[in-house]
């Protein structure tokens, strides 16, 4: 596997640059993988521990990763992600009409990214790694801090999540932070169509209309953490198993809204009217613990939030296109 | 509990003169000739064993009174914390229905008409976990009418009656207006406090009527959320000083109903603010605080 250490002349904060894409928090200037991880096998272990197993499975890395290591990475990836096969589905257009779109096969995280997982990103110094962040957000990077001024989600302190919330979804992160994390783990944010297909589970998978909720069309307050469930706060990312999709993706409805890739540049409205956001907005989906109307927690509902907003009810999960991945070994 | 109201029986109101329990005027036809309270409201009040609490929810035009009141009613009707509200007649559900149907379509409800005889009223029976329940009666008042009454007392009898009879007041203040549009919002609230004092004030004593001051639409500007009092002292210091000097019971709150908003621009170029979703915050808290102080 190719591992590069790129000095970065733009560095202004501790450790700017001397990191491979999202390198370690305590790098030495000449360091690649640590001595313990000098072999590819050990490096695969590190990637899996950090939730970055996708890097070991990229086609571009195939020449450097053995079948044995790839198999381990596949096992890890499939524990964490579910496959959504290619298919067509009907999506709503902003003018109120509908259109049929094709969604190529992809993997989607079974759980929203938890505080514990996001801690790897923070501890690895990724807020200082400019390669992970688009240039337009560099001026805002120093504002992505926790309660104590350390880089991290807005509800953390001293670079650490609240001790009783390791397995809760990470919140208080803006769209750029979600996107940077996704890049760091070798993935990306899902699109609205992908979300609809994964969460709405079209009856024939190859196409058709999606159900409103992962379990069907009828809302059930026992299956999702919305306001009507009475919890009033986030719950662990693996709670509400009875609200999972048939292929084992949890909380696509409820607990936290989730950032997705699409801009919010239109909402369904009468033809002739145009949507104008106050500021750049990205779509969020799925509803959260304080979502009042269950209909807003469906996979079809269109809403959004300012791209730089760091709200306590918005988290995210990652997606990965199958066409980037090497062949899966036969089981 | 007595429920002696015959909502569908018009014979009583047509056959005799019923005194309006709100203003002392007379019910003639479908409303009071003085304060324009609808007959249904008057009969609803008269059908209760004790006179209800009147709570005024007031503020300038566009501050979000209708949305706040409709959302409050919906929250209470589903039960929130120890509070549970029950509409005292179909007229009390009309406002709630109008607001929630609009929000479900990602729209805000239509503006409240200026004419008092077209306002929607609410009579809600509120039960609490701790003590005897109480009734709340309030109309959805047009901001222009409040402004008109504050400028020229006596021009809007309903507003005058409401403030005269109220046991508690919720004053709504547009957060964005406070930050971006000068002192208009602050001055409006100060006028209201001053008007309240002209009716309830006593020399050398602070007013006993509790006043909740609510910064609305904080989804558009979250600055006040962490500490509404600090925000008031920083951005509406004259109002804060006035409250401190004149009111025994006051508290600043923040609220919003939409989780986020955007604008629609139609072919003519006219803009419409739209809620992108419903995420009520700080709607019940001012009411809960007031209810503990209502006499």
What radius of gyration of chain B results from the CA coordinates?
19 Å
Mean pLDDT of chain A: 86
Helix/strand-derived category of chain B reads alpha/beta
Q: Which pair of chains has the greatest number of interface residues, and how are they split between the two chains? A: A-B, 25 and 22 residues
Please provide a written account of the structure:
The complex is a heterodimer of chains A (331) and B (295). Helices cover 17% and strands 13% of the residues of chain A. With 331 residues, chain A is an alpha+beta fold. In chain A, α1 runs parallel beside α3. Chain B has 295 residues and is an alpha/beta fold. Chain B has helices at residues 11-15, 39-46, 65-78, 90-104, 143-151, 157-165, 175-180, 184-200, 228-235, 237-246, 284-291, and strands spanning 18-19, 26-28, 31-32, 53-58, 84-87, 121-127, 134-139, 168-174, 211-216, 250-254, 256-258, 261-265, 271-275, 278-281. A seven-stranded mixed beta sheet of chain B has the order 5-6-7-4-8-9-10, with helices on both faces. In chain B, α3 crosses α4, α8 runs parallel beside α10 and α9 packs across α10 (237-246). The longest helix of chain B is centred in the middle third of the chain and has 17 residues, at 184-200. β6 of chain A pairs antiparallel with β12 (261-265) of chain B.
Sum up the structure in keywords.
heterodimer, A: 331 residues, alpha+beta, four-stranded mixed sheet, three-stranded antiparallel sheet, 17% helix, disordered N terminus, B: 295 residues, alpha/beta, seven-stranded mixed sheet, 11 helices
